[in-house]
């Protein structure tokens, strides 16, 4: 796992970052800070209200997952103290998918 600055663009398997730099990836976990913003996601994984379509954070788009969604799995999914449960579940799914 590598930490980078703010992602500003993603396409195919490449994520580009503010200040330059890019990374080829197999999986993206989209985790926003205090304000939810899915505007940069340009693949068909949102419903007509702009909310991600997912099963416990895993979308139908290969390699795209979410964490910290409201009621992603439980009432605590969007809270710092409980988001770890969803992150562990997604990490397991990534591991299983290879």
Strand content: 15-25%
Biggest sheet layout:
3 strands, antiparallel
Q: List SSEs in N-to-C order.
A: EEEEEH
- Total domains, how many? 1
According to DSSP, the number of beta strands is 5
Q: Please tell me the overall pLDDT.
A: 82
CA(first)-CA(last) distance:
15 Å
Strand order of the largest sheet: 1-2-3
Structural class: alpha+beta
Keyphrases for this structure?
single chain, 98 residues, alpha+beta, 3-stranded antiparallel beta sheet, two-stranded parallel ribbon, 1 helix, 15% helix, globular
Question: How does this structure look, described?
Answer:
The protein has 98 residues and is an alpha+beta fold. The protein has one domain (7-97). It contains 1 helix and 5 strands. A 3-stranded antiparallel beta sheet has the order 1-2-3, with no helix packed on it. Strands 4-5 form a two-stranded parallel sheet. It is globular. The protein starts with 6 loop residues before the first strand and ends with a helix. The model has no long low-confidence stretch (mean pLDDT 82).
């Amino acid at each position: 796992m590598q930490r980078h600055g703010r992602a500003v663009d993603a396409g195919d398997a490449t994520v580009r970052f503010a200040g330059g730099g890019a990374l080829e990836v197999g999986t993206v976990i989209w985790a926003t800070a205090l304000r939810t913003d899915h505007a940069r996601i340009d693949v068909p994984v949102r419903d007509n209200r702009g909310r991600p379509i997912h099963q416990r954070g895993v979308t139908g788009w290969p390699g795209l997952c979410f964490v910290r969604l409201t009621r992603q799995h439980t009432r605590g999914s969007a809270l710092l103290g409980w988001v770890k449960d969803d992150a562990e579940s997604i990490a397991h799914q990534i591991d299983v998918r290879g």
